[in-house]
User: What shape does this take?
Amino acid sequence: MALRTPICDLLGIQYPIALAGMGGASTPRLAAAVSNAGGLGILGAAGCQPDELRAWIAETRRLTTKPFGVDTLLPASVRRSKPEGAKGPSPLDQLPKLQSFAREFMEKEGLVLAQTPRPAEPRPESGARRPQPLSKEFFEAQMEVVVQERVPVYAAGLGDPGPWIDRLHKNGTVVMAVVGAVRHARKVAESGVDVIVAQGHDAGGHNSPVGTMALIPQVVDAVAQIPVLGAGAITDGRGVAAALMLGAQGAWVGSAFLATDEAGIQDFQKEAIVDSDEEGTVVSRSVTGKPARLIRSKWTQAFAESGYEALPMPFQSMVSGPVLLAGSIGKRKDIVPGFAGQGIGMIKSIRPAAEVLREMVAGAEKALANAKGLS
Assistant: This one.
């Protein structure tokens, strides 16, 4: 059977598979490759300055004439000061202590902190991105670019895109939101999103405390007529077929596209994915302050053993940012192997993105055809 669902018509794509908007990895080259192969390429633009985001959109349009999307975070996802009524020291009060811990870790590991950008440093597309100021103003500036550029698809990786829905819809932009709980799905449904991504605990990056198999059908039931994409350790065609069987209209796929020629991460990070297995990841707040699944590293281990509580976003990135940047520049697989989901044990080599997509489509079609024989 052909792998096609109603969401293909909504998004203008051939296959119901979307590239997850992975920050630093889902660059124009990867997004365009996925779109050109028949899926929906999405730019992982969470860390892009507004002018860089505009340039990424222009570059993607040069590389493909097919629909593509932009994924960012939103202001509601960021706590900028101590919550009202909270007791104890504020994140700003605690920041120097954790930064001191990070400096001690860097010294122990022989990591060199680059004070200023140098021409010899890897470009942002290669994974060595400098930390960005995650603030309300920063996100609003990004969203102005998204609106002005009239992108085909916008995806809120965290938070509710409600405040921008009317302007985006006026431009003909299809609006998605990634959620990790039924209550979040109901909220963004009320805001008027067109597609909801149900991303479970198995997923790489920021995810849910609820497992993928449990989350997808409950979100599908809760949001009625709004199409759902399933996400979380969907690494091959069998995973896509499983998401469809659970009621989703397609899949939001991240880790399978990390180990591709076009992914914007460094080669040593791609190698870390291929070398890892199903037990190679951990959920940690040590990078962003929010629970995120990433490949185990000396940094995640050291932070877990430190006794410190991670600071809320964006303060934790002020702690981890220098560590990750120095580790990336030094090509330290043991320090910054990257974000990834629990399905990485199925990834055996680095390949072109189009090949990954084609194999995923064929695998899903085969799995669904085999399922018919069970009735």
